[in-house]
From TrEMBL:
EC number(s) recorded for this UniProt protein: 3.2.2.27
Top-level taxon of origin: Archaea
Keywords per UniProt: 4Fe-4S, DNA damage, DNA repair, Hydrolase, Iron, Iron-sulfur, Metal-binding, Nucleotidyltransferase, Transferase
Lineage per the UniProt record: Archaea, Methanobacteriati, Methanobacteriota, Thermococci, Thermococcales
Uracil-DNA glycosylase-like domain boundaries: 32-186
Name listed for the protein in its UniProt record: Type-4 uracil-DNA glycosylase
Amino acid sequence: MTGKSESMKRLEERIIKCRKCPLGELRTNAVPGSGSYESKVMFVGEGPGYWEDQEGLPFVGRAGKVLDELLESIGLTRDKVYITNIVKCRPPNNRDPTEEEVKACSPYLDMQIDLIRPKIIVPLGRHSMAYILRKFGFDPEPISKIHGKTFEARTLFGKIVIMPVYHPAVALYRPQLKEELQQDFKKLKDFYRN
């Protein structure tokens, strides 16, 4: 096991034991994240849903099937990317995470970014987009205006490209946006290949 793998495993154990906010008491499973610790691409959702809470893995419900299709459409699989969320425990009734929950949990995401050192971060949906853009010094706009656009951030470990996209669930409840999501993933493929 590499030093990065050991550090990530220790971080995942901390997440699994975490009780920093009330979500830790309500969950079935914490959902640290999954995929390759060596990935150049990191996908960040907002929080686990029902199925994720049951299985302890991100994006395993209906939106996860859409994400799998989108990944497949650009020649990627889950084991080649890293997928996580801002909050690691399911908010009740799949409500949006509160500011307090994000504040308690986001240091884990920050550590995941520091350990994995992705070249591309893809926020999935408006909540993760707002968090990631602010983290790297950008002012978020509505996701409908900036999905598929890229932002370049400088970090201690080099340049990161941030490309916000709609949350995969949008394809389920607003099918007319699925094509836009597919187009954004095609742009992602071009960045990934370069």
